[in-house]
Write a structure and sequence with these properties.
- Helices cover about 45% and strands about 15% of the residues.
- It contains 14 helices and seven strands.
- The chain folds into two domains: about 10-110 and about 225-305, Rossmann fold; about 115-225, Putative methyltransferase TM0872, insert domain (DNA polymerase, domain 1, Orthogonal Bundle), CATH 1.10.150.170.
- It is an alpha/beta fold and about 325 residues long.
- Residues about 115 have low confidence and may be disordered.
- Helix 3 links the parallel strand 2 (about 50-55) and strand 3 (about 80-85).
Length: about 325
């Protein structure tokens, strides 16, 4: 299967921020936690001279396409693509490269255009396909969206749609799911899409946003355990940073952004010195939004490892001068 071209959101900003302090360094190491079509990886590898980029992905299509492109671009000495969920990356580095620290790490949490445009993967209601939604599509241990819809309890389904989708018509939708699956399994994207649309009031069924959007997002997050993985991996990624290294995370909805914001804040309170690169998230430029409307909800937050914590006492430097007299 051909991996579709993907627009890497905030690509220039990511490269500029991660490479900003690297000009004088001999050994430059980056990591890309969400390789996808390789946009951020290849931008770093080609724009930062002789850097090494350690990238990961669990999607079989992305891995096959990525290895082919690495070969064609003659980047085998500089780009190392690994088959894994990025949750495994900190432990992988600890075991295989215990002395390795990173000058920059990027995690773009957006779903690749490939997944939405490749109907058979079941991510999008634009195509009639089996309800799958697994990023790791060849892992039979991962529950599919169809399994969740047809087997989870009323309470569990309501929790998924409320928590991950913030869907206001959750009760109606879950009630309809329970009734329909008693008659026959709900197995395809179009079946579920129509069920959800029918649960919306008539005046809201044909708005700018498809009524099924929030529930499909919620199912994708649940299938791939996206928020749980994010919460577990951020502290490990922060610990992999070298001095002046930066961790950049691009989120696409409020649940992800809240987790990143809070975990970055927790890191600032610890013993190891960190600071925020940007107090407010960086968002796509007007030009990027025109080129790629899908980037409209993207937010970039960056945390930096620094040499020492800055004193909160604005008179601290004068106290030290007094002590040295």
């Amino acid at each position: 299967m051909t991996y579709k071209k993907h627009y890497s959101v905030l690509n220039k900003e990511v490269v500029d921020i991660l490479s900003e302090n690297c000009e004088q360094l001999e050994n430059i190491n980056f990591a890309d936690m969400t390789f996808g079509a390789g946009g951020h990886t290849f931008a770093l590898a080609t724009e930062v001279n002789k850097c090494r980029v350690y990238s990961v992905d669990q999607d079989p299509d992305a891995l096959k396409n990525g290895l082919k492109n690495i070969e064609e671009l003659n980047l085998k000495e500089y780009v190392f693509l690994n088959d894994m969920n990025f949750e495994e990356f900190p432990e992988f580095i600890k075991d295989k490269h215990p002395d390795l620290k990173f000058n920059g790490i990027i995690a773009d949490l957006g779903v690749s255009s490939h997944h939405f445009d490749e109907g058979e993967r079941g991510f999008s209601f634009r195509f009639d396909a089996p309800l799958d939604m697994r990023m790791d599509s060849d892992n039979d241990e991962v529950e599919t969206a169809a399994y969740i819809i047809n087997n989870y309890s009323k309470e569990d389904l309501e929790n998924i749609f409320f928590r991950y989708g913030e869907e206001k018509f959750t009760h109606r939708i879950v009630k309809s799911i329970l009734e329909k699956r008693e008659i026959a399994p709900i197995e395809t994207t179009k079946q579920l899409e129509q069920l959800i649309i029918d649960c919306y009031p008539k005046k809201l069924q044909f708005g700018k946003t498809n009524p099924a959007t929030k529930c499909f997002q919620a199912l994708r997050i649940k299938v791939n355990k996206e928020l749980d993985v994010l919460e577990r991996v951020i502290p490990g990624l922060i610990n992999l940073l070298d001095e002046n290294g930066r961790l950049a995370i691009i989120t696409f909805h409020s649940l992800e952004d809240r987790i990143v914001k809070n975990l970055f804040k927790d890191a600032l309170q610890g013993d190891i010195p960190y600071e925020l690169y940007n107090k407010k998230p960086i968002v796509p430029s007007h030009g990027e939004l025109e080129e790629n409307p899908r980037s409209r909800s993207a937010k970039l937050r960056v945390i930096c490892k620094i040499k020492e914590k800055k004193s909160k006492n604005k008179y601290a430097q004068f106290s030290k001068i007094g002590e040295n007299r």
